[in-house]
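Let us practice reading a record.
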Amino acid sequence: MLEVLYPELCNLFGDAMNAEYLRRALPEPEVVKTPLKTRPVFADSQPDLVYLGSMTESGQSLAAAALTPYRERIQELIDSGTVFLVTGNALELFGTHIENEDGSRVDALGLFGFHAKRRMMRRYNSIYLGTFETGDQTLDIVGFKSQFSHSYSEETVSRGETDDSLPPLFRTVRGAGRKPRQWQEGVRVNNFIGTYVLGPLLILNPPFARYLLGLLGAGDREPPYEQAALAAYQARLKEFRDPKTGEEY
């Protein structure tokens, strides 16, 4: 069973198609879409995957408040290996807080040791090229970023050093990691997969989609429209590797 959290909020950048892509890929999938003011399914049972996607900044405040009562349950699910797919600024809800330019902050779940800083007059837009290690192979990752915020580890702030103790999801080749000039992108803890990369991620990266389907017990099942997606993926890889292709836009 796939639980899609807060679809009325998480509807930016086409990221909702990540869940739809999985629905089409899995045999006889059960998909539950949980509205903001409804008790989530994961509170009482264990979905195969929990999905949370990009939202507005005001939506982040609403989602953080809705998820906070279930903080301990979310930690249990992450510890037990439940698959979470969290994209765009939804990742920031799992850090300690989100800091505004005026010093005010939105308290987040505090499950991982980082916080986000917003700069609402400085939207960061870029292509993204990185790699993902599966254990026996390295996958190329492509996508885009469009965000008003970046993430900073708590240890980096206190020591003034680059901190790599929080396990990253991707190794950045072009574009920003959790913040500019950092190679670590996203968070990978057990089967928690969190990234700023937009796209939607799974449609843009069919090899990564296959990997995720494997985590969900689908074996070597072919993702929908895989041949067309692979052709687009290879073309985008060539474009993003080309130094003539601008990184930011």
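A brief commentary: The chain has one domain: 2-241.
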